[in-house]
Amino acid sequence: MGGLNDSVVNEFVLLALSCSWEKRLFLILICSLLYLGVILGNLFILFLVIFDSHLHSPMYFLLANLSLIDVGLSSTTVPKIITDLFNEDKIISFQSCMTQICFIHTIGGVEMVLLIAMAFDRCTAICKPLHYLKIMNPKICVSFVITGWVIGVIHAMSQFLFVIKLPFCGPNEVDSFYCDFPKIIKLACTDGAKLEFIVTANSGFMSMGTFFLLILSYSFILVTVWKRSSGDLSKAFVTLSSHITVVFLFFTPCMFLYVWPSPPPSLDKNLFIVDFAITPVLNPAIYTLRNKDIKVAIKRLLKKIFYSRFC
């Protein structure tokens, strides 16, 4: 990494983690519980979809991939935060900072494509039910996932290649819990206005464009159902409410962080918690509480466990 960037700065200090020991203990407890929920909840969904043959359908294939991505997204930042809270010096090396940024934007790009794929899946299931299995065949589902990773890598690298060449000669203090392009660019010893525009154009417009595309697709589904069912949208709302909730939870922080040039530090920190801890831990609950197939699959699993132990 040093060969690509002859920076004087070789580490960054995360100021957001500098607080009293009592507050740090509270943050350790909260972050640990949230991360445990992310791991257990999402891996349980992944396990359920893999081992229950009744869930081997396009919708649940995409949901399992989303759960895996949520684990990855949370794991890029939360474990590092928990570790730093135990230490007096909240330091991250230049190499680790750049790696963290790349993983965040790669995984974030994959999640955006997966959410689009899930919207397309619901649109096909509701608007063209007779052709659903033909359209959403296994090859298409795998293509969505592969496309997500390709776009995610391109999205991350298109910004990373600019940032890695910036000279960093001080200061090296980041008022946040983690590294990200907008925060690191401001520390460069050069005019970062053009690069800030590139980040906004890339991450900001990508977030906004994907968000509005998803809202339009779900609106189209609701209008289609309304026309077919003489104004009765209750079933459609039940089916789509979980998807729409996840879209708002994921994209609202993204749009604030990347479209707003300089959000207040307090807002930035709160949005970070939503995007990297709360949304990943809520996704399993959101997709299971109103999902009959998942509930039935859980009952089948519990019965198997019960009979294997007591019969």
UniProtKB/TrEMBL annotation:
GO terms for molecular function: G protein-coupled receptor activity; olfactory receptor activity. It is a multi-pass membrane protein. Keywords: Cell membrane, Disulfide bond, G-protein coupled receptor, Membrane, Olfaction, Receptor, Sensory transduction, Transducer, Transmembrane, Transmembrane helix. Residues 41-287 form the G-protein coupled receptors family 1 profile domain. It comes from the Eukaryota. The keyword Lyase does not apply. It is found in: Cell membrane; Membrane. Belongs to the G-protein coupled receptor 1 family. PANTHER family: OLFACTORY RECEPTOR. InterPro entries: GPCR_Rhodpsn, GPCR_Rhodpsn_7TM, Olfact_rcpt, Olfactory_Receptors. The keyword Disulfide bond applies. GO terms for cellular component: plasma membrane. This is Olfactory receptor. Putative odorant or sperm cell receptor. The chain crosses the membrane at residues 25-51, 58-78, 98-120, 140-164, 205-225, 237-259, 271-289.
